[in-house]
């Protein structure tokens, strides 16, 4: 009786927890761009000037500033990752102003310091003195003068270059351009030997901060070209999600019914564990910040398949032992022992396949592999260990001793 | 329910199935060398544009529209409220925007787009990557099975899984189904399932070997038959459930997941078939040859 109570307690607590947390969990599951609309771009990076290899540091920096740019556009949780030696993958889900964001991302946002040195018209700044890659990335910030007016300071990588330029231009304007747009054209007061320059003339703190941001974003160390883009309309994504969820729901209901009808008591336990399995998997997604995409859902459904298989292997084995004339307790014991090895072998081969995919695959292949790995591991915890524990409670309670509870007919049992 | 097949000789029946599989494989080689695969956007550079409309749009009008956009060569398929256009060239962003806006203003302002643009070297790389992935996964599985069981099991299981993967590729080549990244995912999953199926039967064979008194080849054959029979209910039930899940995805799931589920459907079927009729008899053939040396030695438990 105690054991049955324990069984009931486990089930009630687990289902209570599931019912309590599920709505929040489902709302907090991050959906990928193929399920709610959005776009994914794979960039290939090249140095701004000339060719040559891309160094790891500047690739990382570029990825970071891409992320900042997306953030600045008010995009929720943009995913920006570097891949290989010279690639950056950007995934942005659920944006309303896709065109704008893409534009902003892709623009090299080239920052230039220009002068009118040697130009025919003194207001036409035709000579480029310094370019974005001359400045330290992300070093522009707002400071205050002694009069408490905001100014923007920027740093250069090569002090002597700035010194040369500023020496030549004392008394003349040095214009700051961003994407060919004149931001400001302060007059150089003195030779700048410290490697930093100040931009004055900002009316408010906000204005100064904006300028600093723009300059920081502008100092992209690399040039980007799009190599792969995927863009999904929001309604299309929504439709995919609904259709796939419907398919999953129908499949789940039928699988649970199948388990109940074919395997009776072990089927009940299996169904309970399958539901817990799905819930833990969702929790894992949430904890690991996994973005659920269509390939992820595919792996998820396959995970359910493997979970069902685990239960079937165990239940079949117990049935076999019962048919051979063993008592319930000993059939349960040897059935568990024998099926354990089979299940573990099958799972490890799957883990090998999934791990290879994870390390070699890119993009959606990787997404698939993450879910596959997570579901195999959680499956071992729930459908191998939890099932056994729950079934153990039922068998040991001594109240369910008829072979028919386990899906075995009396006529099938061979006498020992 | 229990599928007994008490007197069915799986090993004997496998002779016919061997021929069947060889014929299918030859057919596959022929089909692949003549027709090749119908590569989708992921493995061929260009642009694919899927448009879902909220109301009916006339097919010929739409085709004229795409011609009018003059974005180069394209192929065109259409469904109820859906157009799939494949441009041979990679569209740039402004072309893409223009296409979207023009279509919206001309036909349906509620139209929803899915656009994929793939550059040629990325396409090649993705294919290569996927192939390497499969190869390395296979090698890993072989090593594991060889360590856990013995090399004969490893050889037979890998032939079976190569057979499964190849036959699914054959099906896609024969029926001209589009091969995209999800297809590769499906092949990899099929490999996982196929090895899973085979491992379950081999595990039974290994277990039965421990207690068996093998006097001649007939005993060995009977042992394989018994092992297949004992695991048959599990094989059928598992495949039935997963097959059903794939079928649901295929029938109700979204377009992007359809090809994946179709590949899975083929793969599950071949996977179950090959573990029973290819892998197990193959192991038997290999084992029989080694009989004089190994007959007396009983497999020890791991």
Automatic annotation (TrEMBL), chain A:
Domain Protein translocase subunit SecDF P1: 60-117
Listed name of the protein: Protein translocase subunit SecD
Provenance organism: Cohnella lubricantis
Subcellular location: Cell membrane
Lineage of producing organism: Bacteria, Bacillati, Bacillota, Bacilli, Bacillales
Membrane topology of this protein: Multi-pass membrane protein
Domain Protein export membrane protein SecD/SecF C-terminal positions: 227-394
Pfam families: SecD_1st (PF21760), SecD_SecF_C (PF02355), SecDF_P1_head (PF22599)
Main location, first listed in the record: membrane
Cellular component annotations (GO), alphabetically ordered: plasma membrane
Function: Part of the Sec protein translocase complex. Interacts with the SecYEG preprotein conducting channel. SecDF uses the proton motive force (PMF) to complete protein translocation after the ATP-dependent function of SecA.
Gene Ontology biological process terms in this record: intracellular protein transmembrane transport; protein targeting; protein transport by the Sec complex
Oligomer status and interactors: Forms a complex with SecF. Part of the essential Sec protein translocation apparatus which comprises SecA, SecYEG and auxiliary proteins SecDF. Other proteins may also be involved.
GO terms for MF: protein-transporting ATPase activity
InterPro entries per record: Acrflvin-R, SecD, SecD/SecF_arch_bac, SecD_1st, SecD_SecF_C, SecD_SecF_C_bact, SecDF_P1_head
The entry's keywords: Cell membrane, Membrane, Protein transport, Translocation, Transmembrane, Transmembrane helix, Transport
Regions that span the bilayer: 245-263, 268-288, 294-313, 343-361, 367-391
Span of domain SecDF P1 head subdomain: 128-221
Family stated for the protein in its record: Belongs to the SecD/SecF family. SecD subfamily.
Automatic annotation (TrEMBL), chain B:
Keywords, sorted A to Z: Cell membrane, Membrane, Protein transport, Translocation, Transmembrane, Transmembrane helix, Transport
GO cellular component term, pick one: plasma membrane
Chain segments annotated as transmembrane: 16-37, 130-147, 154-175, 181-202, 236-257, 263-284
InterPro entries recorded: SecD/SecF_arch_bac (IPR022813), SecD/SecF_bac (IPR022645), SecD/SecF_CS (IPR022646), SecD_SecF_C (IPR048634), SecD_SecF_C_bact (IPR055344), SecF_bac (IPR005665)
SUPFAM superfamilies assigned to the protein according to its UniProt record, in alphabetical order: Multidrug efflux transporter AcrB transmembrane domain (SSF82866)
Gene Ontology terms, MF aspect: protein-transporting ATPase activity
Boundaries of every Protein export membrane protein SecD/SecF C-terminal domain copy: 100-288
Topology in membrane: Multi-pass membrane protein
Cell compartments where the protein resides: Cell membrane
One record GO biological process: protein targeting
Quaternary structure (record): Forms a complex with SecD. Part of the essential Sec protein translocation apparatus which comprises SecA, SecYEG and auxiliary proteins SecDF. Other proteins may also be involved.
PANTHER family registered for this protein in UniProt: PROTEIN TRANSLOCASE SUBUNIT SECF, PROTEIN-EXPORT MEMBRANE PROTEIN SEC
Function (record text): Part of the Sec protein translocase complex. Interacts with the SecYEG preprotein conducting channel. SecDF uses the proton motive force (PMF) to complete protein translocation after the ATP-dependent function of SecA.
Family named by the database record: In the C-terminal section; belongs to the SecD/SecF family. SecF subfamily. In the N-terminal section; belongs to the SecD/SecF family. SecD subfamily.
Protein name (Swiss-Prot/TrEMBL): Protein-export membrane protein SecF
Species per Swiss-Prot/TrEMBL record: Cohnella lubricantis
Chain's gene name: secF
